[in-house]
C-alpha cells in the first residue's frame, strides 16, 4: 500500500504549469516563486516515481503520462473546491467570495445596470469579475478559475447547467448612407457576405450572428476581424461594411455620436439568450439559481 499521497498544492502546481506552459507564469498564478513551484513538481515526480515534465531551456513539455496525470489532478482540485464550497453554501447563501466571468458583449452593457443594486442588496457578497471571451470563460469555468459565467446561449460550453435571464434581440447595423433604402426588418438573404463584419473566433456573438443568417457561405465570406463591438461600430461608421449588434448594446448607447442606423433581423434565430451558467452538479447550484433570479428581476426593473 502506498504510504504517501500527492498534496493538493503539488497538484495545483502541476495543473498551473500545464495551463501556462511556463514555470515563471505558472508560479505567478500560484503566488509562489518559480523555485518553489519547480521543487513541488519534482517532489510530485519523486513521489510517483516517474517523470511528468521534460525540462529544456526553451520548452516545457509534458510526457504522455504527465498529461494524463495533470488532467486527473485538475478534476481532483475541482472536487476539493466543491467540497469547500459545499460547506460554505450550508451557511448564509450569497455571502463571501464569488468569482464570475462575463463575456465582452455583455459586461459593459449589462453590469452597470445590475451591480449597484446587487451590491446594495447583498453587501456581504464579494463578487470578483473577469471579462473574457466565451471560449476562455468556459475554459475558466471548467478549470475552476471561476464559479459561474454570464454567457449568451446557445454556445457549446461543456457540461453545464444554466438559468436563462432574458432574450436579447439581434439587429443589423448599417452606415448612414444605407438608411434610405432599408426595410423595417432585414431578411438574411439580403446580406452580402463581403459586407458582413463579425467578431473574431472565441466570441459567441459571431456564432449567433451566423446562426441568425442561416447561410453557411457567410462563415467563409464574412470578415472576422473585430476585437470588440466598439471596434465593429467604428468600422461600420467609416463605411467599411455592416455588422450585427445585440439590442442590449444599442439600448446602452453604443451608437451614441454615430450616424449608424439599425434594423432587426427577421429570422428563426433572431435573438440570443443571456444566461447564468455553472458546472453541472455544483454544490452551489441553489446559490446560482438564487443569483440568477436576482439578476433577472433587477434587469426587468431596469428595463
Give the helices and strands, then pairings:
Blueprint: H1 8-20, H2 23-30, H3 34-48, E1 53-55, E2 60-62, H4 64-89, E3 96-102, H5 107-121, E4 125-131, H6 134-142, E5 148-153, E6 160-174, E7 196-199, H7 204-213, H8 217-221, E8 223-226, H9 229-237, E9 242-246, H10 247-251, E10 261-264, E11 271-279, H11 285-302
Helix pairs in contact: 1-2, 1-3, 1-4, 2-3, 5-11
Q: Based on Cα principal axes, name the global outline.
A: globular
Assigned CATH class of the largest domain = Alpha Beta
Overall mean confidence score, pLDDT: 87
Class from secondary-structure proportions? alpha/beta
> Looking at CATH, which topology of the largest domain would you report?
D-Maltodextrin-Binding Protein, domain 2
Please state roughly what percent of the residues sit in beta strands, choosing from under 5%, 5-15%, 15-25%, 25-35%, 35-45% or over 45%.
15-25%
Task: Determine the N-to-C terminus distance.
Answer: 63 Å
Figure out the total of helices.
11
Give the full name of the CATH homologous superfamily of the largest domain: Periplasmic binding protein-like II
Low-confidence runs: none
Q: Please give the largest β-sheet.
A: 9 strands, mixed
Q: Give the tally of β-strands.
A: 11
CATH architecture of the largest domain: 3-Layer(aba) Sandwich
Classify the helix fraction into a percent range.
40-55%
The total number of structural domains is 3
Domain HTH lysR-type: 6-63
GO molecular function, one term: DNA-binding transcription factor activity
Protein name: Hydrogen peroxide-inducible genes activator
Keywords: DNA-binding, Transcription, Transcription regulation
Amino acid at each position: 500500500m502506498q504510504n504517501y499521497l500527492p498534496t493538493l498544492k503539488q497538484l495545483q502546481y502541476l495543473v498551473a504549469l500545464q495551463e501556462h506552459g511556463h514555470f515563471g507564469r505558472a508560479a505567478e498564478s500560484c503566488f509562489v516563486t518559480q523555485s518553489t513551484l519547480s521543487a513541488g513538481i519534482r517532489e510530485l515526480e519523486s513521489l510517483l516515481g516517474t517523470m511528468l515534465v521534460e525540462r529544456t531551456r526553451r520548452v516545457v513539455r509534458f510526457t504522455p503520462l504527465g498529461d494524463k496525470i495533470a488532467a486527473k489532478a485538475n478534476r481532483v482540485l475541482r472536487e476539493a473546491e466543491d467540497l469547500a464550497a459545499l460547506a460554505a453554501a450550508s451557511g448564509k447563501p450569497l455571502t463571501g467570495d464569488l468569482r464570475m466571468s462575463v463575456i465582452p458583449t455583455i459586461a459593459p452593457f449589462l453590469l452597470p445596470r445590475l451591480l449597484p443594486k446587487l451590491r446594495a442588496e447583498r453587501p456581504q457578497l464579494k463578487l470578483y469579475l473577469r471579462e473574457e471571451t466565451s471560449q476562455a470563460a468556459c475554459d475558466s469555468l471548467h478549470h475552476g478559475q471561476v464559479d459561474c459565467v454570464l454567457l449568451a446561449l446557445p454556445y457549446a460550453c461543456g457540461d453545464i447547467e444554466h438559468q436563462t435571464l432574458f432574450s436579447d434581440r439581434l439587429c443589423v447595423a448599417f452606415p448612414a448612407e444605407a438608411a434610405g433604402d432599408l426595410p423595417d426588418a432585414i431578411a438574411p438573404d439580403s446580406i452580402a457576405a463581403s459586407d458582413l463584419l463579425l467578431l473574431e473566433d472565441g466570441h459567441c456573438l459571431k456564432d449567433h450572428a451566423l446562426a441568425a443568417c442561416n447561410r453557411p457561405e457567410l462563415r467563409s465570406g464574412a470578415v472576422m476581424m473585430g476585437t470588440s463591438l466598439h471596434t465593429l461600430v467604428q468600422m461600420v461608421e467609416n463605411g467599411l461594411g455592416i455588422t450585427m449588434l445585440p439590442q442590449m448594446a444599442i439600448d446602452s448607447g453604443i451608437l451614441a455620436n454615430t450616424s449608424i442606423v439599425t434594423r432587426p433581423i427577421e429570422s428563426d434565430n433572431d435573438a440570443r439568450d443571456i444566461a447564468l451558467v455553472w458546472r453541472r452538479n455544483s454544490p452551489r447550484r441553489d446559490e446560482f439559481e438564487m443569483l440568477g433570479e436576482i439578476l433577472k428581476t433587477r434587469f426587468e426593473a431596469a428595463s
